[in-house]
Amino acid sequence: MSNNRWSNKLSFIITTSAFAIGLGNIWRFPYIAGEGGGGAFLLVYLILMLLVGLPILTLEIALGRMAKSTVLIGLGRLSQKPMWNGLGWLAAISCLLIMSFYVMIMAWIVIYLVECLSGNITALPASEVPGHFDGIASQLVLVTLVVLGILSAAFFVVRQGLHAGLERYTKLMMLGLLMIIVGLVIWAGTLEEAVKGYQWLLMPDFSKLNFKMVMSALGQLFFSIGVGMSVAFVFGSYTDKKENLISSTLWIVIADTFFAILAGLMLFPAIFSFGLSPDSGPSLIFVTMASVFNKLEYGRTVGTIFFLLLFLAGFTTLISCVQGLKDSVKDRFGFSHINGSALVICIIGLCAIPVVFSYSGDPILIFGRTIFNFLDFLTTTVLLPLGGLLMVWFAGRVVGFDKLRAQLLFGTKNVRIHGYWKFVLLWVLPILILVILLNGLLGN
């Protein structure tokens, strides 16, 4: 049973928002929106976040509070059937695998941060900027050392406990994150072609609406709010019974979406101002934005601030995941606080090293993919949708709508959960998630 409790409602909202607001918002959302056509994608994403993302995140947090324990034992406790703890293991493993390549991306960010700070990026000839990323990713020893340094910093934070560690540091980093991103949005608005970027992001072109784009928006939604990664369940177990989960989760989703939109308002004006492509894919921040900083007279300063923003966003997610995983193994196996933290950090580190070697001269291939690409595909296309589907099925078919509704109404005033939400829980959400899962499998 989890003995941790949030200091107050604000700590719960800020810390859970910090978990959700990560590289999924500031790295992944802009390039997915770029590939999806800008404004039309954003409109679909906002609608789906309200209709799908908010209910699923609320369900996962509510299940954690009902269980009063973490994910590796909580589902078995709720169902009185230990076999359902397998779903908790699925979520925990998904989280570990995602962090194993997530921390490598963070290492690239740290290296680019240093490169901008030293002036190396702006000193490069413009023609060499795109190839510079490949050179950094292939420095295997350097990337591995940076990965280990980042994980050591995460261990330092988490070992201090929920209040002195995770809560305190995420509040500071979220404040810094907000100040930096707002400053960069203001900077982007001063560029010559900023209006074109705003129009592209905020004015929907409905001719771009199609099934693929809707599926892309749903997939991004899952990645962004961290459904099926066990952390929301664990954070729910820290929540007091008097807490209004509906309003709290709404604020978390608003914060997550707000930061994603700010990222778009920061990046796309710069991209259009320098005649670059908004649909450049995953390389958007490492190649496209580095090209922007290379062309700016003051690119060294802006680039340093930009990559600091990315690091803070990624690190808040990393320490949230380590916290959730640490408490889960602590509850399941009786480990001490320090030993549980060390175990999680070591597993992530051991999994991360083969991922880093995806960029060696002769990488190991799994079904024709590098380890990095395979884990990215396995987690985002298979494990997260599968975990989300099983979590919704568990909530609706095992726990039941009536118990969930009673749980969600604790701490609320003048709130009604109408009967039609039972149909949404039992049929609409499972079918939507199943479509995401099948579309990802068949499309790949």
The helicity comes to: over 70%
The number of helical segments is 18
Low-confidence stretches: none
Rg computed from alpha carbons, rounded to a whole number of angstroms:
21 Å
* SSE class: mainly alpha
Shape: globular
Q: Output the strand order for the largest sheet.
A: 1-2
Q: In percent terms, what proportion of residues is strand?
A: under 5%
Write down how many β-strands occur, each being a DSSP E stretch of 2 or more residues: 2
Distance between the termini: 40 Å
Mean pLDDT: 92
H-E string: HHHHHHHHHHHHHHHHEEHH
The biggest beta sheet, please? Answer: 2 strands, antiparallel
How does this structure look, described?
- The chain is an all-alpha fold and 444 residues long.
- The chain is 77% helix and 1% strand.
- The protein contains 18 helices and 2 strands.
- It has helices at residues 9-20, 23-36, 39-67, 71-79, 85-118, 120-123, 129-137, 140-158, 162-189, 194-202, 211-225, 231-237, 245-273, 288-295, 299-333, 337-356, 371-409, 420-443, and strands at residues 365-366, 369-370.
- A two-stranded antiparallel sheet has the order 1-2.
- A hairpin with a 2-residue loop joins strand 1 (365-366) and strand 2 (369-370).
- Helix 2 (23-36) crosses helix 13 and helix 14 (288-295) runs antiparallel to helix 15.
- The longest helix has 39 residues, at 371-409.
- It starts with 8 loop residues before the first helix and ends with a helix.
- The model has no long low-confidence stretch (mean pLDDT 92).
